[in-house]
Structures are given as C-alpha cells and as structure tokens.
Design brief:
The chain has 179 residues and is an alpha+beta fold. It has 4 helices and 13 strands. The strands form 3 sheets. Strands 3-2-6-9-10-5-4 form a 7-stranded antiparallel β-sheet, sandwiched between helices. Strand 9 and strand 10 form a beta hairpin. The structure holds flavin mononucleotide.
C-alpha cells in the first residue's frame, strides 16, 4: 500500500459505478434531467435514496424549490442521452425534447418517469444536508416502477479495459456495460 494524493485513490474506487438520472421540475412545469453517479440507498423501511447535487447545477435550484423528484436507473439504450443530460444545462434547453427522451406520467406528481430506464422511483424530498460544494437531498420512495424487459442491462460508468464495452464517451466520461 502506498500513500498518494486524494484524486489518485478516488480514481481507483470510482469505476465501475452505477448511474442515475434525476428528474425534477420547475415552477412552470418543465421537467429537467441531471446525470449522477453520487447516489445511494439509505433506508429500507421506509425506502429512501440520497442524491448529491452540485450547488451550481440548474437541478439544484429546482430540487430546492419543488420537494419531489424521480430517480431513474438508465439502461444501455440510454447511453448517449445520459451523456447529453450530464453535459448540458436545463437552464438553456429542454433536454427531454432535444434528446428525444421517452417519458410517461407517473403517479406521485407531474414529474415524468423515463420509459427506457430499467427502474424508476418517485420520491418525496424529506430533508437535505449541505456537503461542501454539493447538497445531499434525501427522498422517500412513494412509487416504484421496473422495465417490462427483464434482460435490459443498466448502464454503468466504466473503466476503459477489456472487461467492459464502451457505449458512449465524452472526455473523462466513459459509459458502457460489462462484456
Ligand atoms: C457520468 C456523469 C456523472 C455525473 N455525476 C454527477 C453527480 O453525482 N452530481 C452532480 O451534481 N453532477 C454530476 N454530473 C454533472 C451533471 O450531470 C451536469 O453538470 C449537468 O449538466 C447538470 O445539469 P443541470 O444544470 O440541467 O442540472 C455528472 C455528469 C456525468 C456525465
């Protein structure tokens, strides 16, 4: 074991990682999607998720006002869209329209669920905690959805090596699946 700088050690732990898309909504009813790797399950009863959102993101503004969100787990079908949602801001564009993201109305609110995801969780925000340059929003799951295709794999943030297939790449972001 050798001591090193923080970034080198983090690089060793951060790939592969699961990905999530978080859908939130503005006061005028327009939904927006952000790509995340920083999310986790935090309670079983009741079921809860935590998501960590940079304070400069447009989604941060929306999540701070509207106390609901949808957490979607993207499938391999969504590789390009996941990169697009993670490299553009909803302040400037309507990502759902521009990137042809298939949506359907959920049960909790007007915030849509994503049809090409492997699963969707409709959440009510319970609390939030500032963590440096991010805010952790904690949501309680009210309704859960799964894709009817059980063989549809989830998309991952991957290392570039022979064990993984690259499906989309943009600079430091590499997305794909296990071979
Ligand atoms: C693979 C990937 C993972 C990301 N993970 C996070 C994350 O965990 N938290 C975060 O705040 N931003 C994360 N981002 C960056 C946001 O998705 C990005 O800044 C996005 O453009 C913000 O959109 P918005 O301004 O519409 O909210 C990630 C981006 C990518 C491509």
């Amino acid at each position: 074991m050798i001591q090193c700088d923080y970034n080198s050690a983090v690089k060793r732990m951060s790939r592969p990682s699961r990905l999530a898309l978080v859908v939130s909504q503005s006061e005028d009813g327009r939904a927006n999607i952000i790509t995340l790797v920083w999310f986790m399950r935090t309670s079983k009863e009741p079921p809860m998720f935590a998501i960590s959102i940079g304070i400069t993101r447009y989604s941060h503004k929306l999540l701070s006002k509207s106390r609901k969100f949808v957490l979607a787990i993207p499938s391999i079908k969504m590789a390009k869209q996941v990169l697009q949602c993670g490299t553009t801001s909803g302040e400037d564009i309507d990502k759902i329209k521009k990137f042809n993201i298939k949506v359907k109305r959920g049960k909790l609110s007007d915030i849509p669920i994503l049809l090409d995801a492997v699963a969707n969780f409709e959440c009510k925000t319970i609390t939030q905690i500032r963590s440096g340059d991010h805010t952790i929003f904690i949501g309680e799951v009210k309704y859960s959805w799964q894709n009817e295709n059980e063989n549809l794999n989830q998309l991952l943030s991957i290392p570039e090596n022979k064990n993984y297939e690259v499906l989309a790449k943009d600079g430091r972001y590499v997305l794909g699946t296990v071979k």
